[in-house]
SDR family NAD(P)-dependent oxidoreductase (Pararoseomonas baculiformis), 262 residues
Amino acid sequence: MAETIKPLAIVTGASTGIGRELAREAAQHGFDLLIAADEPEIEAAATELRTLGVQVDAVQADLSTEEGVDKLLAATKGRTIEVLMANAGRGLGKGFLDQDWSEVRKVVDTNITGTIYLIQKIGQEMRARNAGRILITGSIAGFMPGSFQAVYNGTKSFLNSFSWAIRNELKDTNITVTCLMPGPTDTEFFERGDLMDTPVGQAKKDDPAMVAKTGFDAMMRGDGDVVSGLKNKLQSAVANVLPAAVTAEMHRGMAEPGHGKK
C-alpha cells in the first residue's frame, strides 16, 4: 500500500530559536518540512526533526538575496507548498550612526527584501490553486520607534503592516495570512545582534517553544495576528496609545548600550 504523501511546510530561519520550534510544531502536526537558514546548523536541525517521523530537507542559503530564495524554491522540486512560515530575520543593536552599513543592509535585505520576495513567489502558487497558509514573524518591536534598534524595529513595523495588507488582498480566497508578533524571546538573537550589554539583552525572555506554538496555532486557525505572552500584549496595547516620542524613550531604556545589569 502506497504511503500517503504528507503536506509540505517551508520554514525559514529554522536552524535555531523560534524557527526551529515552528518546524517542530509543523512536524508534530504531520507536515513534511523544507527548512532553510544561512548557516550550517540547519543540517543539525534537520537531523533532529527527522526523528519526528517526517521527511525533512534542509537548504543552507542566504535568504537576504534573490539567489538564496531561488535556491530554496528550487529545493521544493515542484511539490505543493501548503504552509509557508517566513521567519528568517536579523537584529542589530547600537546607535544607527555607529552601525556598519553592510550589517544594516543585511538586516533590511533579510527581514524585508528576501522575505517578501519569497512570499510573493509562494503566494502566487497558492493563489493559483486557491489554498495555503502563510505565517510571517513580525514583532511587538514594530509598534515602537526602536531607539538603538532603529533599523530592526523599522523592518518589523513593515512586516506587521505588510502582513495585514496582503491578508486583506486575499480575503476572498482560501489563503490565510497570519502575523506572529513575539516579544523578547530566549534565542541567539540578542547575542548575534550585539545586544547583550543592554537591559533587554539581559532580561528574562519568553520560551521559543511557547512562542512557536502560539504562532502555529493562530496560523492553523486562520487568525490575522497574535501577540505571544501577556506582558507583550500589554506592552503592545500601551504602545498603540502613547505618543511616538514617549515610546521611543521607553525603548531607549531597554536597548541603550551599556545600561545592562552589572
